[in-house]
């Protein structure tokens, strides 16, 4: 039977700092999106408050507005009824003291985009009344006791690596630690071993092996272009693996080492490799060729394990 009921077009609003974006936020947004024709997600930012959140956290570096925006964009890139907007909250009294000014500012950016909300989503029951008052539309609560995704951004900021599974996939590369263990012939392939038991990604040094093999047999057979290709390929592998990694990525080639090979062969530095040194910096590089020779393979293993462990706290 054909329905005669006409359903009006619904426009939802959801808010957050997403500092950082986690699966509880994503659930809230997806659950909201499933109930409306279009959902607008407002990313609230305020420079001083955001810096303070970072200073009081155990995050390894500060997520900037652009990072938080890109995490949302990437997560919802194939969700056409979800749109992300950035709201600068500068000059407005902090939550919950500036509610009217804050909602006026939200409404003014929505007006510029011709968006009129018909329903507000939040998981904060204490906010429902004021949202309803200032936006003049109903408020729907999503998983207010957080029983489905028992996580908060505060918990992640305090303990990002113990809460890794909740961090949005799109945000993980920001937090991944890159660890390079160089020159471990006598000690086994430690980078591979560590990747194994940390249940994470190992990026092999196949290209640096190639360089060494070629240079040992036929000196200077590789051209500058070959090094650039090696560097770019290694960078690409590191970047791709960051989405799959479980907290760490292990490898046995970093760009400082590649640059030093380059300099030995060509007598000058390569600017592209310099760019990669700063763009893909390493959290820990252990060079066993310069470290004092240890007595046994197990001594290498134990010493390096201590260093790696200290990098997740
Ligand atoms: N100045 C003011 O008076 C005022 C008033 C209201 C709101 N605001 C602004 O609005 C924004 C509100 O952000 P927030 O602090 O709520 O952001 P948040 O990033 O902590 O959370 C975003 C949303 O996700 C929900 N959520 C979090 N964890 C969840 C989980 N595990 N399961 C389901 N849902 C979950 C939250 O309840 C919230 O609705 C801030 O920018 C704030 O400044 C300001």
From TrEMBL:
It holds the Pfam family CTP_transf_like. NAD(+) binds at residues 15-18, 22, 49, 89-102, 122-124, 149-151. Its EC number is 2.7.1.22, 2.7.7.1. The keyword Electron transport does not apply. InterPro entries: Cyt_trans-like, NAD_biosynth-regulator, NAD_NadR, P-loop_NTPase, Rossmann-like_a/b/a_fold. GO terms for molecular function: nicotinamide-nucleotide adenylyltransferase activity; nucleotide binding; ribosylnicotinamide kinase activity. NCBIfam families: cyt_tran_rel, PRK08099.1. The keyword DNA damage does not apply. One of its GO terms (biological process) is NAD+ biosynthetic process. This is Multifunctional transcriptional regulator/nicotinamide-nucleotide adenylyltransferase/ribosylnicotinamide kinase NadR. It comes from the Bacteria. Residues 14-50 form the Cytidyltransferase-like domain. Keywords: Kinase, Nucleotide-binding, Nucleotidyltransferase, Transferase.
């Amino acid at each position: 039977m054909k329905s005669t009921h006409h359903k009006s077009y619904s426009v939802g609003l959801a808010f957050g700092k997403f500092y950082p974006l986690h699966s509880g936020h994503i659930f809230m947004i997806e659950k909201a999106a499933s109930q409306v024709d279009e959902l607008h997600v407002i990313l609230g930012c305020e420079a001083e408050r955001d810096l303070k959140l970072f200073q009081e956290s155990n995050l390894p570096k500060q997520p900037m507005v652009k990072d938080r925006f890109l995490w949302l964009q990437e997560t919802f890139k194939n969700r056409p009824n979800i749109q992300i907007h950035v709201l600068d909250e500068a000059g407005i009294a902090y939550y919950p003291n500036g509610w009217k000014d804050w909602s006026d500012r939200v409404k003014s950016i929505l007006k510029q985009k011709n968006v009129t909300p018909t329903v507000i989503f939040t998981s904060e029951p204490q906010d429902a009344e004021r949202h309803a008052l200032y936006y003049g539309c109903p408020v729907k609560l999503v998983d207010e006791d957080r029983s489905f995704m028992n996580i908060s951004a505060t918990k992640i900021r305090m303990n990002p690596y113990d809460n890794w599974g909740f961090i949005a996939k799109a945000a993980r590369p920001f937090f991944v630690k890159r660890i390079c263990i160089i020159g471990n012939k006598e000690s086994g392939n430690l980078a591979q071993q560590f990747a194994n038991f940390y249940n994470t990604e190992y990026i092999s040094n196949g290209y640096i092996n190639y360089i060494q093999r070629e240079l040992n047999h036929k000196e200077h057979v590789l051209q500058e272009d070959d090094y650039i290709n090696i560097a770019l390929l290694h960078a690409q592998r590191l970047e791709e693996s960051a989405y799959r990694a479980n907290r760490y990525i292990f490898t046995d080639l970093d760009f400082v080492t590649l640059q030093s090979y380059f300099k030995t062969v060509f007598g000058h530095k390569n600017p592209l490799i310099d760019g990669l040194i700063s763009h893909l910096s390493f959290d820990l590089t252990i060079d066993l060729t310069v470290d004092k020779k240890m007595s046994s393979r197990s001594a290498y293993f134990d010493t390096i394990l201590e260093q790696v462990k200290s990098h997740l706290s």
